[in-house]
Amino acid sequence: MTGPEEVAPQGRRRRRAPRVRPAHPAAAPFITRAIPPYEMLSEEALVSIETHAERLLEEIGLEIRGDPEALGLWREAGARIENECRVRVPAGLARTIVRRSAPARFTQHARNPARSVSIGGPCSVLAPAYGSPFVSDAQGGRRYGTFEDFRNFVKLAYLSPWLHHSGGTVCEPTDLPVNKRHLDMVYAHMRLSDKPFMGSVTTAARAADSIEMCRILFGREFVDANCVILGNVNVNSPLVLDGEASRVIRTYAAANQAPVCVPFILGGAMGPVTTAGGLAQCFAEALFCVALGQLERPGSPAILGNFLSSMSLRSGAPTFGTPEPALAYFAIGQLARRLGVPLRCGGNLCAAKVADAQAATESANSLWPAVLAGANFILHSAGWLEGGLVMSYEKFVMDLDQCGLMHVIAAGLTLDDNAFALDAFREVGPGKHFLGSAHTLRNYETAFFDAEIADNNSFEQWQQDGSHDAIWRANRRWRSLLSGYEMPALDAAIDEALQDFIARRKASLPDANA
Amino acid sequence: MTGPEEVAPQGRRRRRAPRVRPAHPAAAPFITRAIPPYEMLSEEALVSIETHAERLLEEIGLEIRGDPEALGLWREAGARIENECRVRVPAGLARTIVRRSAPARFTQHARNPARSVSIGGPCSVLAPAYGSPFVSDAQGGRRYGTFEDFRNFVKLAYLSPWLHHSGGTVCEPTDLPVNKRHLDMVYAHMRLSDKPFMGSVTTAARAADSIEMCRILFGREFVDANCVILGNVNVNSPLVLDGEASRVIRTYAAANQAPVCVPFILGGAMGPVTTAGGLAQCFAEALFCVALGQLERPGSPAILGNFLSSMSLRSGAPTFGTPEPALAYFAIGQLARRLGVPLRCGGNLCAAKVADAQAATESANSLWPAVLAGANFILHSAGWLEGGLVMSYEKFVMDLDQCGLMHVIAAGLTLDDNAFALDAFREVGPGKHFLGSAHTLRNYETAFFDAEIADNNSFEQWQQDGSHDAIWRANRRWRSLLSGYEMPALDAAIDEALQDFIARRKASLPDANA
Question: For A65, which residue in chain B has the nearest alpha carbon?
Answer without folding.
Answer: B431
